[in-house]
């Protein structure tokens, strides 16, 4: 369903009974709500949650922001490297206000929040800027963004910044996009839980057919680069927090998880061997149980 959230039209889905504990799921860079696998959502619903997943602004079926143009990504990356201000079409703080808008539109005063990757950055903003709306906070495969943290390898960076090959026909362009994303996910995925190539390609095809907005990814990358002061604000988070991270994450090295857990008062840390930067089916029960256990901490606090 389409809802007006913070003045932005967002696509929102709600799963589970109205009586369930509200759990807001926030996805990462350029990723659509369907990147939260249906099976994982079902596991969470089975644990008593009313799961809310949505497309961030500018992606999926939510309101596009093409009128803002395409920022200069190399310039933004250079400024970010030297700790200089980056001008972005919108900020991570804006995406956090969108998330609050989702809760407002659904009439939810407080919710458990789970964010993955860039979604975890948005969730951090919710924690320190909108803490009164949180029951608990789970941060998956994300980072404080502190400049001292180790970065992804050059190989991973090259793959992330690469683009699909051009195609002479619409069909060939589509196949090239599938090839591109299959390669990306193969590089950043879980070495301990490798995805079956045919199943992965089918999932990618379904996502791309739903929506494909590559320019939005650039805008969101620049928003990440512009978000320079998040780490210093993390001690303000008071919600029971769980940091969940893969020990084999090639995109955001696991050191970022240890850093987050140190910065957030009372945060718990859980790292999983073999887990990369994806959501493999074999880990759905473990992830759902971890989210539920952290949510239960809010009832005891």
From TrEMBL:
Residues 22-279 form the AB hydrolase-1 domain. One of its GO terms (molecular function) is triacylglycerol lipase activity. Keywords: Hydrolase. Signal peptide: none annotated. GO terms for biological process: glycerolipid catabolic process. The keyword Phosphoprotein does not apply. It comes from the Bacteria. InterPro entries: AB_hydrolase, AB_hydrolase_1, AB_hydrolase_fold. PANTHER family: AB HYDROLASE-1 DOMAIN-CONTAINING PROTEIN, HYDROLASE, ALPHA/BETA FOLD FAMILY PROTEIN. This is Alpha/beta hydrolase. It comes from Roseateles puraquae.
């Amino acid at each position: 369903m389409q809802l007006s959230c913070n003045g932005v039209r967002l696509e929102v889905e709600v799963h589970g009974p109205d009586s369930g504990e509200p759990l807001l799921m926030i996805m990462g860079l350029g990723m659509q709500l369907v990147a939260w696998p249906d099976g994982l959502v079902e596991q969470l619903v089975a644990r008593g949650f009313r799961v809310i997943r949505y497309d961030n602004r500018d992606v999926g079926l939510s309101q596009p922001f093409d009128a803002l143009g395409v920022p200069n990504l190399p310039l933004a990356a250079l400024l970010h490297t030297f700790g200089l201000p980056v001008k972005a079409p919108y900020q991570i703080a804006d995406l956090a206000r969108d998330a609050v808008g989702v809760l407002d539109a659904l009439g939810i005063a407080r919710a458990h929040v789970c964010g993955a990757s860039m979604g975890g950055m948005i969730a951090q903003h919710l924690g320190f800027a909108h803490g009164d709306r949180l029951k608990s906070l789970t941060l998956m495969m994300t980072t404080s963004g502190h400049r001292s943290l180790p970065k992804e390898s050059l190989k991973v960076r090259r793959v992330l910044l690469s683009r699909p090959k051009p195609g002479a026909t619409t069909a060939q362009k589509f196949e090239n996009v599938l090839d591109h994303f299959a390669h990306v996910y193969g590089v950043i995925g879980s070495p301990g839980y490798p995805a079956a190539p045919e199943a992965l390609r089918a999932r990618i095809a379904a996502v791309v057919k739903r929506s494909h907005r590559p320019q939005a990814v650039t805008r969101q990358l620049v928003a990440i680069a512009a978000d320079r002061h998040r780490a210093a604000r993390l001690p303000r988070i008071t919600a029971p927090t769980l940091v969940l991270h893969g020990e084999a994450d090639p995109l955001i090295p696991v050191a970022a998880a240890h850093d987050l857990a140190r910065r957030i008062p009372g945060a718990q840390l859980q790292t999983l061997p073999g887990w990369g930067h994806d959501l493999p089916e074999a880990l759905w029960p473990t992830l759902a149980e971890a989210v539920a256990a952290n949510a239960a901490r809010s009832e005891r606090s």
